[in-house]
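cron nightly-structures :: item 1 of 1
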Amino acid sequence: MSTIDYGKLRSLTASELVKILERDGFKRKRQRGSHHRYIHPDGRRVTVTFHHPGQTFKIGTLQSMIEKQAQWNEADLKRLGLLKG
């Protein structure tokens, strides 16, 4: 069960998420079609899909990228300015 309140999370586009990943130390490693793979020096990997510019992610997709891939917790989201309020 997630401890992150996704109701407080602001909606994100792919380009916004990429800027935040890069600010947190992730670097783009490769691209295959619309899927961009970002790698952190500690080994974490995040795949970001670019289908439509300006389109925000569905909550399930965003949750997977945040919790399972980037392994961010609520403190990380606050530090990165992703949580409202």
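cron nightly-structures :: done
The beta strands are 27-32, 35-39, 45-49.
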